[in-house]
Every structure is written in C-alpha cells, then in structure tokens.
Amino acid sequence: MNAIRYTIVPKNAAAHLFEVSLTVAAPDRSGQRFMLPVWIPGSYMIREFARNIVTLQAFNAAGRKIAVEKTDKHAWATAPHDGPITLRYEVYGWDMSVRAAHLDEDIGFFNGSSVFLAVEGQADAPCVVDIQKPAGAQFAKWRVATALPEARGTKRYGFGKYEAPNYDALIDHPVTLGEFALGSFDAHGAQHDIVISGRVSALDMRRLEVDLKRVCEAQIALFEPRTKKAPVARYVFMTVAVADGYGGLEHRASTALICNRADLPVTGRPDMTEGYRTYLGLCSHEYFHTWNVKRIKPAAFAPYDLSQENYTSLLWLFEGFTSYYDDLMLVRSGVINVTEYFALLGKTIGGVLRGSGRLKQTVAESSFDAWVKYYRQDENAANAIVSYYQKGSLIALAFDLSIRTQTAGKKSLDDVMRLLWQRYGRDFYDGKARGIEESEVEALFAEATGADLKKIFRDGVHGTRDLPLEALLEPFGITLAADIATNGTSGKPSLGARVRNGADCVLAAVHENSAAQKAGLSAGDVLVAIDGLRVTGSNLDTLLSRYLPGAKVEIHAFRRDELRVTQAKLDAPEVSRYVLSIADKRGASKPHRERWLNG
User: Fold this and answer.
1) Which one of 159, 205, 535, 593 is CB 3.0 to 4.6 Å from 527, fit for a cystine?
2) Do 579 and 346 contact (CB within 8 A), yes or no?
3) Where does residue 104 rank: exposed (0-12), middle (13-18), buried (19+ CB within 10 A)?
4) Of 360, 386, 356, 359, the residue nearest 373 (C-alpha)
C-alpha cells in the first residue's frame, strides 16, 4: 500500500499558524474523503479540532487546483479525480495544553489528531511526515522531540522525515519543537528521554533522571517480573514548564505534560517539595498508561472511533487504577517514603468523601458519562457526580487490600494487572488487538486471585456505598482517622462552600445541605460582609475562625446586582483529608504491610 505523505512546517509563529500538506498517491477515484478527529484519546470530550483549520485547498499532481468541499463539521471530499491528490491547509495553534496544537516564537507543539487529516479508506496505510524547520535566524537552535521513528537520513531530535505504520500510530506520537533541556536514562534496557521546554533555571536534570529511572523500572518489573522487558524500545517524557499549569496525556511511547516550573527539581536543593512530588506522580501516572489503556484497552476503544464519542463503563479501571498505582509506584521505588504516601492517600480519601455526588453516581456511571459530565463539570458537580479517577483509585486500594487479606499475601491486585497485560495488552500492536469486554472484568479478577470480590464490585463499582477502608486497612496495622484543622481547642467552622481565587469572595460551588445552601446562597454569589465585616477572597477563613460551629452569622451578598441579606448557621469543620497511621509497627501485620508498600 502506498504511504500517505505529510509535511508540516511552523509557517508563521506570530500568527500561530502551521502549514500542513498531505499527498495521497492512490485516492478514491469517485472522490476522496478526508476527516480530522473530533476528540483525542485519553481526553474524553468532543473538542472539534477541525474548527482550527483556517484554509484548505486541493491540487492534482501537476499543481492545478481541484474541487474540494466540506461535507460536515470535520470532513472534506474532493471531486472525482484520477491520480494523486495533495491537500494543503493551515492550522491555527494557540492551545497551551497537552491536547491540541500550540505555536509561538518560543515553543511549537502538536498532537497529530489536531493537525493531520485522515484519509478515509486508507487508515492502515503507512505514513511519512516531514517536519520542517521554521524560517528565520531566531529558530536556528530549534529541535524536534518525538517518539516517532526517524526515517533514513533523519537524525534523532532533528528536522526531517519520521515514519508511522498507520494513521493510528501517526497521531499517537505528539511532537515538541523548540529549544529544550534534554536528559536520558536506561530503564531495564529501554531508552527513556526527558524533554523540558519553557523557561526553567537551575534545573536538576540529573535528579530527574535518577528518580524517573526508579519509577519506570518499578513499573516495568510489575508487569514483567521475569523478563523485565519494557513495552517500548524508547520512551519520551515531554514537559512544558509554565507559571501555572498541570496536566498530562498518555501516548503509546511518550507522554505530553505541562507543569509549574516551580515544581521541577532545582540544583543544590535535595528536599522533596510538594510540587516535585506532584510532578513525579503525574509522570508515574502517564507512564503507567503505557500498559493500562494504551495497550490494555476496553473493547469500546479497540479500535477508536475518532468521529464521535466512544462510551465505556470501565474508566474506573483504566483511569482509577492508574491513579492508584501512580503514587504507589513512587513509594515502592523509594522516591517518596511511607509517610508521604500516606499523606497523598489521605488527601484522596478526603476528596472523595467530601462530595455528596459519590452517594448518587456510581463509578461505572461516571465512566460512561465522562463525555457529558466529568469533562464538563459545572458548579454543582461535587453534589452530582463522582470522580472515576479518585474513587476509582480507592476501589483499586480496596481490591488490593482485600485480595491480600483473603489470600494471606499470596495474591494481590498486581496479579490482576499482570493477567490483563498477558491476555489483552502484550500483543495489542502485533495484529492481535482486542479490548476487554465489560462482562469479562469480574471473572478475570476472580481468575487472577481466587478471591471473593463480589461485594466490592456490587457496592464500590456498581453501587454508591462508601468503601470500608478502615476495616480493610486494619489487618495491615494501619488506622484511619479524619484530620480536622483546628483553631485553638475547637475546629474551625465551615460555610460548606468553595471560593474562587481572586480579590472578591465569589462562591464557586455550594455543597449540598451545607450552611451556605440552607442560607440560600448559590454559586456565583459574591459575599461582601459577615456580621458587618468586609469579606474578600483571602480573608474568609480568618473571619470564620472567630466563631464556633453552630454559630449564627449575618451575611450580605450580591447575586448579580441585587444585594441579599441572610442568616447562616455555621457547619462543623470540613474534613479535607484523612490521616493514616501505623499502629502495629512490629507485629504480625508488618510483613503484609511491607509486601503491599514494597511490592
């Protein structure tokens, strides 16, 4: 089959325009149809990337224009034509995220799903993309970072031609352009590169290499304990460092990340900051996806239909379990200690139990509704939905602890992940692609462990009951208790509302049955005074700390341009996190606890 040939060049950085061309050697003679994806795998929301195509023209082999028309929101078709066709089009790139395309004088970045049109009927054709250097002396030091294999004659990190076996592979390798810091390490025989774009000073790349090597090797050993063979020959961590940002998106041999530049490690400062720990957790999360969702997939994603939503009720398994293992692999690899891991786990538990949406929506329903609820959250989200990330990670914890207890430590959730890998993931890109059906999941857990997990599936996955984490942790010598911030001898009272960042005290969300809701306050209201004292976006907690829970206060607030006066009876302190403590440091529970935390 003839290769589809693409060329992409940063045409005008000031205008944020890429110019893309693609040539089809053997198009459909009756009229060739082209389509741009409407979403990107890993981010479950219709994003309509075609809206960023500014101009589009079609040409024959002689360079003469041929007719092309847009047939729907994301597709174009040429008039009947015999012979090669070339499309040439411009793409606007001004999305500084991990999902689409961005171009300015400092950084270029794109995901193939937002810039490369698919050729209908030729999805399995090999693809060659020529990534060209932008014109101008200011771009003289720009390089290319991608996990796409280089074509003959192209040097790694150089401009030139790159290859993909098909369209799915082409759009699963994001590309970073520009000047960047570069690090590298070997993890069980596989090369891993670190690319840091953006303005970062005193970056401790060596520390980043050492820490990520430990995390990557721990994950490789989890899935392949005997061979320790990585699923890829080369992997690339690509990060854009900004003043304020956080996010990641998984790909089959790389990940695109965005982080606060202050979160990156600094030379000469060996302490583990909260920001750096967060960044390592993000890297760990996306790397775990190399197995879990990029190769082990739900049946609904094998293959992806990028023209519309792909519904599955299994995101709790693919995102939630990944969220469990991301921090667990940090402690197992020794990058963080047990105390730090318990703090992260306690924060997750508090986050789940704080929202009343967990009592109304199951994680299976949350997974299915990701397209219209989780990725489109409004001010009532905490009262209406549950996160398949956060609660999914606690369900993974519940499965893991239950399996270990029932089997006296002989089996664990690791065995489930390994069976999923062996049966569905290891050979996924070798022509044996099949995703797991939703009806197969529970039986696979039983096969892998021999444990009775029906109650967790019933109550945790398909029900809305809170997980019995305190009882599950007890055999491991760990206690669980609410952590309430205190003011003197009494807990600080709460309005039960979340406030937006800013000078004004604007309510971003009001929790169900809270003091604020009972007082008639709503999201969007601007609090201006409590008992006659001015409220700002920064002093609300200070004002509330003067009262005891149950105290009544008078609140003045604006809703739109109307002043409202109401009375509120303050709630008990909110529990934002839980504390996990080791109660049995030397007893019979110690070996079980160490096997869990040490892998």
Assistant:
1) 535
2) yes
3) middle
4) 386
CA 510/CA 518 separation, integer angstroms: 10
Domains along the chain with CATH numbers = 4-178 (2.60.40.3650), 179-271 (3.30.2010), 291-476+584-599 (1.10.390.10), 487-569 (2.30.42.10)
Q: How many other C-beta atoms lie within 10 A of the C-beta of residue 46?
A: 17
Q: Is 528 exposed, middle or buried (0-12, 13-18, 19+ CB in 10 A)?
A: middle
- Yes or no: say if 50 and 38 are a contact pair by the CB < 8 Å rule: yes
pLDDT digits (tens, 9 = 90+) for 54-100: 999 999 999 999 999 999 999 999 999 999 999 999 999 999 999 99
- The token pair at 198 is 């953006």
Backbone angles phi, psi at 239, to 5 degrees: -125, 135
Residues 243, 260 contacting (CB under 8 angstroms): yes
Is the CB of residue 9 less than 8 Å from the CB of residue 160?
A: no
Residues whose CB falls within 8 Å of the CB of residue 344, separated by 6 or more in sequence, listed in order: 277, 281, 327
- In whole angstroms, give the CA distance from residue 70 to residue 450: 55
Strands 552-559 and 526-530: antiparallel
Other Cβ atoms within 10 Å of 583 Cβ, number = 12
pTM, entire model: 0.96
What's the pLDDT score for residue 488?
A: 37
Cα(86)–Cα(418) distance, rounded to whole angstroms?
A: 45
Contact by Cβ (8 Å): 33, 53: no
Residue 507 has which token pair?
């309510």
Q: Residue 144 and residue 109: Cα distance in Å, rounded?
A: 10
Task: In whole angstroms, give the CA distance from residue 327 to residue 322.
Answer: 9
Q: What is the 3-state secondary structure (H, E, C) of 322-358?
A: HHHHHHHHHHHCCCCCHHHHHHHHHHHHHHHHHCHHH
Q: Which residue matches tokens 């990670």?
A: 393
Instruction: Give CA–CA dist 257/72, Å, rounded.
Output: 32
User: 91-124: per-residue pLDDT in tens?
Assistant: 999 999 999 999 999 999 999 999 999 999 999 9
